[in-house]
Write a structure and sequence with these properties.
By secondary structure, the chain is of the alpha+beta class. It folds into 3 domains: 119 residues, no CATH class; 126 residues, SH3 type barrels; 85 residues, Alpha-Beta Plaits (2-Layer Sandwich). 55% of the residues lie in helices and 14% in strands. The chain is built from 11 helices and 8 strands. A 5-stranded antiparallel beta sheet has the order 4-3-2-1-5. A 3-stranded antiparallel beta sheet has the order 6-8-7, with helices on one face. Strand 7 and strand 8 form a beta hairpin. The protein is elongated, with a radius of gyration of 38 Å. The C terminus is likely disordered.
Length: 374
């Protein structure tokens, strides 16, 4: 249906094109004004609602583009059929409008994830709940963005006649092609499903301390296909999501960040264990790294060279436990060396007294005089 203000412009196509351009400009300005006024009103109404406020902030540009493209869509719908390039402009505007709506949907999802991240900071001492929530939010946000992107791309293809025919031909020959595509996409789909499993069952979370293939590190990032583990020496290990579903690994912060640390000392049998235990307890109680839960010393092993002392302590997290272990090990070695130096591990060579026919150590055998010639 043609609008009334285009009814007298059908005689000249370029006059119609000029009128359409002027009308499109006016409609665009009106759309921008209405968008500005609407955003101000919504911000005032959502002043105490953080999720809505962040959604308005994240989606400002996307919604602005959608308003302008929707206004152009109205103008092109009412334009005369004699307008040059009307069909091409309509298709371009439809594609851009779908892309901007997809952009708006993705920004709204990201605004929800950003708001959740603001209200669940991980830079606190007890951040177990925050890491659980952020892990679910990160995985679900990426999954929702992928789905929205695929829907937007599908609607774009449906607006193009050539793409519709191409899609129909693909569906008609979906036998072998579907099998090949399924085999080729198996790792991608496997990681996608593994990401959903990780989001809900949560064997790992952001900032979890893991032992993966013998390497100690923290979960730095969880993407849609892999996990970035930051190793203690600043290296990064990239692990596919599906690996965490199919392989065993150690998670030191799955239920709590508290952990026990051990220090092993090999000492001589002559060392007084009660004195060493008393010094160990004194050093541990003076340390600010100890969380006041566990402080125990046991003799856990012995062999022909000495005995093994295990010093067991607790700390609030694995990093603090490592520093506490080093502190205790250094102090205990210094204590034993200062007070019981003979109790440090050593080898004891035992020299038996020489027999009557054996030369004594350090002495040369007597020199035999040469006999006179016959």
């Amino acid at each position: 249906m043609e609008l009334d203000y285009f009814s007298d412009l059908q005689q000249g196509p370029w006059r119609a094109a000029a009128a359409v351009a002027v009308t499109a400009l006016i409609f665009s300005i009106v759309a921008l004004v209405l968008h500005r006024a609407g955003m101000l009103l919504l911000r005032r109404l959502a002043r105490n609602r953080p999720y809505t406020t962040n959604a308005l902030k994240y989606g400002y540009r996307a919604s602005q583009a959608c308003m302008v493209l929707f206004a152009l869509r109205l103008v092109l719908t009412g334009a005369p059929d004699t307008t040059p390039f009307l069909l091409s402009l309509s298709r371009i505007d439809s594609v851009l409008l779908i892309l901007c709506l997809t952009w708006l949907g993705i920004t709204c999802v990201n605004s929800i994830g950003g708001t959740i991240a603001e209200y669940n900071p991980v830079n606190v001492e007890d951040n177990l709940r925050a890491r659980r929530v952020l892990t679910q939010t990160a995985v679900l946000t990426r999954s929702a963005n992928v789905i929205i992107g695929l829907l937007g791309l599908s609607f774009v293809l449906l607006t193009l006649p050539g793409a519709r025919q191409f899609g129909a031909s693909l569906l008609a020959s979906a036998g072998v092609a579907g099998l090949v595509a399924g085999i080729a996409a198996r790792p991608v789909l496997g990681n996608f499903i593994a990401g959903l499993q990780i989001a809900f069952s949560q064997p790992i979370r952001l900032d979890d301390v893991l032992i993966v293939n013998g390497e100690w590190g923290r979960v730095e990032q969880i993407t849609g296909t892999f996990v970035v583990v930051r190793i203690w020496d600043e290296r990064r290990m990239i692990v596919p999501l599906q690996w965490f579903i199919e392989n065993p690994f150690e998670n030191w912060t799955h239920t709590t960040s508290s952990i026990l640390g051990t220090v092993f000392l090999w000492l001589d049998f002559s060392v007084p264990v009660p004195a060493v235990r008393a010094e160990f307890e004194r050093i541990t109680h003076l340390s600010s790294r100890w969380d006041k839960r566990v402080c125990v010393l046991h003799v856990t092993d012995a062999n022909d060279k000495g005995m093994q002392l295990r010093l067991l302590v607790s700390a609030r997290d694995s990093g603090t436990a490592f520093d506490l272990r080093c502190e205790i090990r250094e102090a205990m070695i210094a204590f034993v060396a200062a007070h019981y130096p003979d109790s440090l591990p050593r080898l004891r060579p035992v020299l038996d007294a020489p027999g009557p026919d054996e030369p004594q150590l350090g002495k040369r055998p007597p020199k035999v005089a040469d006999s006179p010639a016959p």
